[in-house]
Hints:
The chain is built from nine helices and no strands. It has helices spanning 5-21, 28-35, 39-45, 49-71, 77-83, 93-107, 112-139, 148-168, 178-189.
Amino acid sequence: xxxxxxxxxxxxxxxxxxxxxxxxxxxxxxxxxxxxxxxxxxxxxxxxxxxxxxxxxxxxxxxxxxxxxxxxxxxxxxxxxxxxxxxxxxxxxxxxxxxxxxxxxxxxxxxxxxxxxxxxxxxxxxxxxxxxxxxxxxxxxxxxxxxxxxxxxxxxxxxxxxxxxxxxxxxxxxxxxxxxxxxxxxxxxxxxxxxxxx
Length: 198
């Protein structure tokens, strides 16, 4: 997903506004002000707020898919997934709040364009992760006894759950769960050592 620089800046401004004020309370005028442009310029790139939300969803999914594709063939898949932000994506509280809002908007049956984007992009991310796991299985760096598709769905669900907790402020006073998540992923992904019970 390649957008003109100005469109990218508008998406960044929209993300900041949505994270702080929510989708429904945020106006196009506020987004334009945050981006330092006129509403007319915003409408040149996007049909409105719903289109901005859909574009945000698709941009983030495209980045995640690209990172997952880049991870294929890595001898240290866990480190590669770190780079894909699969382990550390909850570190940014504002980004976590935005993600929860996006999923909630889709779940409540809001704008069709948003719901369609969320469903399509989750499907793409899960498929990309499953394909990455299968490449790892073929290379012997991922346990060939796991179901790649089911495991991909599980891992995405784990990440989303952590994002939801981050957005709700649960565990803000506790150490980040990165190490525990890496340990869990290692037990799921890596071939069992001789004599190890799973």
